Amino acid sequence: MHRISLKSLQIHGIFLKVGPSNGVLYWKAGSCLTNAQSQEKLGYKVELKGPGSLTRDGFFALTGCTSPSGLDPGCGPSGPSITYTHINIEVWTDVYRGSWDEIQMKYPNMAPKNLGNLGYYGATGLYVPSAVQERAYEAEGSNLDFYRDYNVTWQNPSRYFTSPGDVNVSELLPCTDSALMLHEAGVPKGNLEQQAYLMLCLSNLVTKRCKKCTRSARSISLAASIECLLQVMANYLNITGDTAGVVLGAAGITGKCFQEYFWLAPACRHQASSCFVWLTGGNGWGMYEVLVKATTYSMPLATAVASSFANYGKLATVYDMMLYWWVPDPTFLRPWLLKLD
Fold first, then answer.
1. Residue 53 to residue 71: CA distance in whole angstroms
2. Could you tell me which of 260, 314, 304 has the C-alpha nearest to residue 278?
3. In this structure, what is the dihedral angle of CA atoms 13, 16, 18, 23, given to the nearest 10 degrees?
4. For residue 227, with 0-12 CB atoms within 10 Å meaning exposed, 13-18 middle and 19 or more buried, which class applies?
5. Per residue in 118-131, is it b (16+ CB within 10 Å) or e — as a string?
6. Segment 290-339, tens digit of pLDDT
7. What is the pLDDT of residues 11-58, one digit of tens each?
8. Fewest beta carbons less than 10 Å away: which of 79, 94, 291, 336?
């Protein structure tokens, strides 16, 4: 293992979600703070590297692989012998446990070390604006903080949200470019290996149905993740039996688009105006988890994907929507959001 001079330190700032990184500050803040402290307090010469698109990219950069963001990260047949990246700020270790374990096993001399927690943990989930929750509670005592609060058999949660027809669709990604189109014969725009780590096949709900996935998402490999991902709409159909929510074509099973920009849950499919909008970014972060939950819990939900990260942040301030979000992150500090349990 070749060791770099003590005064040469490089930091791999890593954007932790799939999608464009323009305007996203939280990884930059951590990298810049570490940069300042390392130079001013410790006397290191620091160079910021990256950014990558995923935590996985940072793992391979630390290992010394030459193409850390690629499907083939460029580690070489015998593994790297030198690395020019030494610190990675903010990583989502649970989601990428498979990559971490694979690197530790294949490249033990160069594998990165986990130096501990920075003082907070990251989490993803579904969120609703607190103002929406307050209106629902004042009107009928509905909390809207649990999935079953959205069951149309007992409640009408859509009245407190924006309906699909009121959204400016020019700021949304067409369904044909979204994760709904993933199937065994082809993929939409975007990076397949990046999507493979973030979709529902990493959930125990689907790993039990996916031939190539293990019961534990922690031990999933990249190749298995991709193959599992390509079966996701078929998995959705197997789990829910919702034939009206998919398209059965010669090329494979894809999600069904409604009004070009939405997928409508069975609870409101008969009338789109009775749906409320769930918004996400990328090409459909968290999409498949929501499809299954909306169908299982009879939630009158329409999925929508913002066409850019800027629109992802903007639309939530214009409309009353349920959101896919992660913390810690400053994007939606205003309006304040409530996480569903």
1. 12
2. 304
3. -60
4. middle
5. eeeebebebbbbee
6. 999 999 999 999 999 999 999 999 998 999 999 999 887 888 876 688 88
7. 444 332 222 222 233 455 566 767 677 677 777 777 777 766 677 888
8. 336
